[in-house]
Amino acid sequence: RCGSSNSGSRLGAINNLTVSSSPRSGAPVARNSVHFRAIRPACYSSFPRMASTRIELPFKRIRKINIRFRIPYYTQWGENLAVCGSDPGVGCWDPNKALRMVAYHEGDILFWHATLTVADDFSCDYNYCLVDDQRNIIKWESGQRRSFTLLQGLPDGASVDVYDLWRDGSAPESLLSKSAFRNAIFCQDENEENLEDFKATIHQDHFPADTFNMQDSVLVRFRVSCPKMESGKIAYLTGSASALGNWNSKEAVKLYYGEDSYWQTDCTIRKDEFPIRYPFISSNSFFPGLRMDKSSKIIPEIGSDRVLNWDSITRRPATMIFVSDGSFRETPWRGAGVAIPVFSLRSNDDIGVGEFLDLKLLVDLSVKSGFHLIQLLPVNDTSVHGMWWDSYPYSSLSVFALHPLYLRVQALSQKIPEEIKQEIEKAREFLNLKDVDYDGTMAAKLAIAKKIFYLEKDEVLSSDAFQKFFQENEAWLKPYAAFCFLRDFFETSDHSQWGRFSEFSKAKLEKLVSKESEHHNTVAFHFYLQFHLHLQLSEAAEYARRKKVILKGDLPIGVDRHSVDTWVYPSLFRMNTSTGAPPDYFDKNGQNWGFPTYNWEEMSKDNYTWWQSRLTQMGKYFTAYRIDHILGFFRIWELPEHAVTGLVGKFRPSIPLSQEELEKDGIWDFYRLSQPYIVDHILQ
Questions:
Q1: Are residues 367 and 549 in contact, defined by beta-carbon separation less than 8 angstroms?
Q2: Which residues form the CBM20 domain (predicted)?
Q3: Which helix (H) or strand (E) holds 665?
């Protein structure tokens, strides 16, 4: 800006400005700098000459890269594949804007391909989806989102091929990607020294442009899922190319463990060696190449060799190929487990019943026996009636709270007085019977726990561990503790008989559980119990995971009519109905379980938040669930509230099949569907 102090507010402007990417001769300047030079207008000739100015600006030339997606997939007429992902080029997860693919044949295999031109810093998540001609979703591939990042340093105009395989959720190997297998049975030991030495540099993101001969070679990134790869084993790659050892096992290429069971490595393959044949191999060798000695356990893939070709006839052959080779092919995994209720366990530390910490002993037994799974009955609190009826584990007082029956009182404190220790010993001697004395065990444990609580309540309730637990669980913990107090105060769990507390109120709840409440100690005792139950079950669950054993929980189909959940969320349940089963071969009168049915329409309004919270709570302890009466989630046998047996029920929802639906599936002979088909060879 130029001007004169005598010109007032009027400012002159430079009417010529040149920008040059190269400086004056002899002046050193960094690459990509911009050189500015101001030209003085004649009217300002009296001003001093302005020096040429060089300003260093960050400048990067953006290269364009062509990504070519390719995947084999057989479709029906009118079906198409598309690439849908997080980048605008692949639709930002909108199938209507997804990258449409084109089909072509290679022999008997139908391939789909699509090309996307991107900047050289491209990165996105994506999946493949099957759509119809109007781009309506037919289905998505299963599994987690795929992730793709271009290597930096690829030359401008380079082509990168991405070879994927469709992930089918019904394939047996997809089951092995679930958390029960991934985080328990086949969990990689992150602390194993040898594995750490060879763990992946999977975020290697630079293309070796200085050392790579693009005229003669192609860079290939091999990637394979090895969900059954146990700790202490490494994946290798061998094959017909020189970079793969030319079938020499001593020259096999080591793959590196990345994440989510994937192993990968980069290899430079000469173009004249394509097509290449190769298998993957697993071994317990941590040395370069495969060590062939008595200690080596080498497991090659089953089936024929994999084949990779390089398309040399395209206008721009690939500089790099990303190959996602699906899963390591090996014999199907087989495992065994044990199903047992917690209350049936026995140890020297029990009081009358099996306890959560006894699960650690069962885990040890399972490891020695070759079992990989422990399945339990439901462990939620069922204390509805205050008597032995509550021993039925499927009638939950709360779907979040754990049952005090499974508490180990000796583990509540490190400073238990001697007289309480003697009381514990007497209870053990009296209650450790062949059969469980439910009433006596509950009474003894609650009495002992309450004495310990009053000795250390201030210390425990103010501890960081308890405060963390309370903050994470207060949404259900406060109503549960208040319910237990009101149940004992009114001597019934039927909350319709609680007077002004019959209808749940957040304001009344907060007043009841506050520290200023005269009943705070009684309410806080239930906080205390749940805190220690959480610690003890968490300890057992973590122990099982470390020992690579699945701890499988049980998800009951219903909740008790007089429960915390029906008190707090009455609109989520059809309280004038009951759940059961229709008459069948086993019971001609059917069954009436007494649980109210779910109001699915109401639950859907907040995206099933209650169910999400329930499953999340179970997930803190269990790596697998058994879903009780799975049919009931789709169609339940619903009875009126006054019903005694299951005879007067009906299915809800009751959705018949229309004639058009049956005919669409080729079913037209309705007489055949409604008449028995019995022939002689069946009777014989």
A1: yes
A2: 59-168, 212-312
A3: none
| pLDDT given for residue 331 in this prediction | 87
| Residue whose entry in the numeric block shows the structure tokens 């909740």 | 559
CA of 2: how far to CAs of 9, 13, 20, 53, 375, in Å? 12, 6, 22, 16, 84
With a threshold of 0.90, does the pTM exceed it? no
Asked if 562 and 399 count as a contact pair (C-beta separation under 8 A), the reply is no
How far CA 34 is from CA of 19, 24, 40, 60, 351, in Å, comes to 7, 12, 20, 12, 82
How far apart are the C-alpha atoms of 319 and 162, rounded to whole Å? 11
User: Does the structural domain 173-321 have CATH classification 2.60.120.380?
Assistant: no
Give the pLDDT band of residue 159 (cuts 50, 70, 90).
very high
Percent of the chain with pLDDT over 90: 70
Closest CA to 282 of 246, 257, 258, 309: 257
Alpha helices in 581-677 (DSSP H): 600-603, 609-619, 659-664, 670-674
**CA angle (585 as vertex; 583, 588 as ends), nearest 5:** 40
Q: DSSP labels for 165-229?
A: ----TTSHHHHTTSHHIIIIIT---TT-HHHHHT---TT--B--TTT--TTTEEEEEEEEE-TT-
Residues of the chain with CATH 2.60.40.10: 64-169, 173-321
Single-letter amino acid, residue 68: R
DSSP string, 531-543: HHHHHHHHHHHHH
Tokens representing 565 are 């959940």
CATH for the stretch 338-570 = 3.20.20.80
64-169: CATH, from 2.60.40.10, 2.40.40.20, 3.30.70.270, 2.60.120.10: 2.60.40.10
Where does CATH 3.20.20.80 sit in the chain? 338-570
Is residue 52 pLDDT above 80, yes or no? no
Using alpha carbons, select from 343, 335, 336 the residue that is nearest to residue 378.
343
- Look at 615 and 658; give whichever has higher pLDDT: 615
CA 488 – CA 526 distance, rounded (Å): 12
CA nearest neighbour of 160 among 127, 123, 110, 111: 123
The answer to whether the Cα torsion of 225, 229, 232, 238 is positive or negative is negative
According to the model, what pLDDT value does residue 544 have? 97
- Provide mean pLDDT across the span 457-471: 97
Query: Rounded CA gap, 423 and 417, in Å?
Result: 10
* Better-scored residue on pLDDT, 454 or 41: 454
